[in-house]
Amino acid sequence: MSLLNSMLFSTILSADSWELFKSSLLPMITGGIKYTIPLTLIAFVVGLLLALLTAMMRISSIRIVRIPAIIYVSAVRGTPLLVQLFIVFYGLPNLDIKIDPFPSAIIAFSLNVGAYASEIIRASILSIPKGQWEAGYTIGMTRTTTLRRIILPQATRVSIPPLSNTFISLVKDTSLASLILVTELFRKAQEIAARTYEFLLLYVEAALLYWVICFLLSLIQEVIERRLEKYAAK
What we know:
Largest sheet: none
Distance between the termini: 55 Å
CATH superfamily: MetI-like
CATH topology: MetI-like fold
CATH architecture: Orthogonal Bundle
Number of strands: 0
């Protein structure tokens, strides 16, 4: 084990490796800024809108509205994200529907986030006591108004922590977009590794960059959660 560790450190810390590490840092960061972060943000926002709609359909008392949402959530949660990505990018062209890599990634990730986040939102809404609904009805509010003014604000506070975790997971999942030729952070690492054959060094470097991004997001999540706790205490 000690021999393996020494070989690993000698590979990573050699002068040539250090120069490669520094020279490949900017292309990876550029890939992250141009593709990884925008892909994450766009897919999460679109996914949240889809999740809210799906959650509303799931809690509806109308069967014909509820069943499509149940099927959608079940289908997405029951299949791998990679398969969904391949269906959108490689499968749809068989139906003469050709979509570029980046939009394909947005569609696949948005659908995936929408299904998982809808369950978080639905559970958050159902966690609000029924007395809150009754209080809204008592003062003359309709179901829609009660949902918008009383239930959703409380459900939002409950759903923030799990939704934050979903967002952080999405950052890591965007690495799968490299398989459909989106030149995001990990794709840049693959391209440089293919030229230099320094796979260990470059993949470790990519992992470190993902870790830094997720670590910073975790710090932001903690700040938001602390503020929400203070608000809840009041």
